[in-house]
Amino acid sequence: MKRLLSLLMALVLLCSFNIATAAEADISVFINAAEVEFDVPPVIVDGRTLVPLRAIFEALGASVEWDNDTRSVLSERAGSSVSLTVGSNLMKVNGVDKILDVPAQIIQDRTLVPLRAISEAFECSVEWDNSTRSVLIYTETDVEIDLSSIPSYTGAPFTVINNNVPFFDVTEFFANSFEYYSPLDYLSRCSTAIAVIGNDLMPTEPRGDIGSVKPTGWHSVKYDVIESGYLYNRCHLIGFQLAGENANKQNLITGTSYMNVEGMLPFENMIADYVKETDNHVIYRVTPVFYAEELVARGVLMEAYSIEDGGEGILFNVFCYNVQPGIIINYPDGQSGTDGNFTPKDESNDYYILNTNTKKFHEADCGNGQKTKEENKEISYLDRDSLIEMGYSPCGNCKP
Predict the structure, then answer these.
(1) Long-range contacts of 206-213 (CB under 8 A, 24+ apart)
(2) Which of 47, 50, 62, 77 could form a disulfide with 57 if both were Cys (CB 3.0 to 4.6 A apart)?
């Protein structure tokens, strides 16, 4: 009887082990939509996914230096360094200690490390898809743009940046369609959206209603000088015709009709036409560029590269200006007006007139400022020091 009970318990334990192993083995890991292959399957320990060390570092394009004596690893990628030791809850990221929920550990003779912690240490974005039990990692989801390095608006809807070459590393992407939308920031503003556009990502149904989304700085206002009437559109970062996104608040910003139609749309059409004609894929990243805590973006940076032909079909890096000819926009809150009737908030003169051509700023009642051409005029509620940091200098007449 005892032998029978022992046998039954052994069978139960064996089945439990196999079930757990099977449950963990079906976890998949993707980097920019390309699946990562492991010789030892990922496992979940205390709610954290662990994966083989060398495989994940190399898949992320990071170096691997293993010290067998200390059972520690040092890895570098794109200027960032990560070091950790088996069994230790401390990980150094660029020399700064970070606490790990679950340490690196030896499983099946392989060193496994916490996937999310490693990926985020290298500034990648990580998502968990519970429906497919997949970890989705996205690189190149952010780009820093200094507004002072962008030429002032002079009448063209866009300007070429970096000799028309994208800032992202094209070697990190494959001909696999995907889309990623960064979380909203602390002001509920959109951040970078990135996708690999393919025919399989494009919409098969008409666009739905997006009126429920009110992006930061949104105002529903019309002007006779605008052909479509409305000043602002809910501008898709990744255009609907490319990815089929409707009321996705992480993909919609307050943009002028001019930026949407004259600036962004021609580039979106270019990508759509190319993909439909060739069945190739295009890396496409769009970043709204805000100054300080302004709620309306000054414009969007649009970068694209066709994968299969090495950029022969599609290659651009442009900044589209979020302006509207004949209209003055207050970027901190989205208020607007024409040159003759713009009334600042609170009906006060606590604002400056900017001349984007001469890079001068003036007091609200300065005659020189009021004579500024409409296409070069902006209203700003930023303080004096902030304007100087942006590259503006005070008017010599009114001395603001």
Answers:
(1) 207/240, 207/246, 208/246, 208/247, 209/246, 209/247, 210/234, 210/246, 210/247, 210/252, 211/247, 212/247, 213/247, 213/248, 213/249, 213/252
(2) 62
pTM, two decimals, is 0.76
The segment with the largest mean pLDDT, out of 4-8, 79-83, 250-254, is: 250-254
Q: Which two tokens stand for residue 337?
A: 């007006």
pLDDT of residue 331: 94
The closest of 301, 300, 304, 306 to 316, measured between CA atoms, is 304
Selection from 84, 76, 82 nearest residue 101 by Cα? 84
> What tokens were used for 257?
């009709």
Integer-rounded Cα radius of gyration of the chain: 26
Q: Which helix (H) or strand (E) holds 54?
A: helix 53-59
Q: Coil, strand, or helix at residue 12? A: helix
DSSP structure class, residue 400? -
Residue 120: which of 49, 191, 185, 52 has the closest Cα? 49
CB–CB of 352/394 below 8 Å?
no
Q: How far apart are CA 45 and CA 334, in angstroms?
A: 48
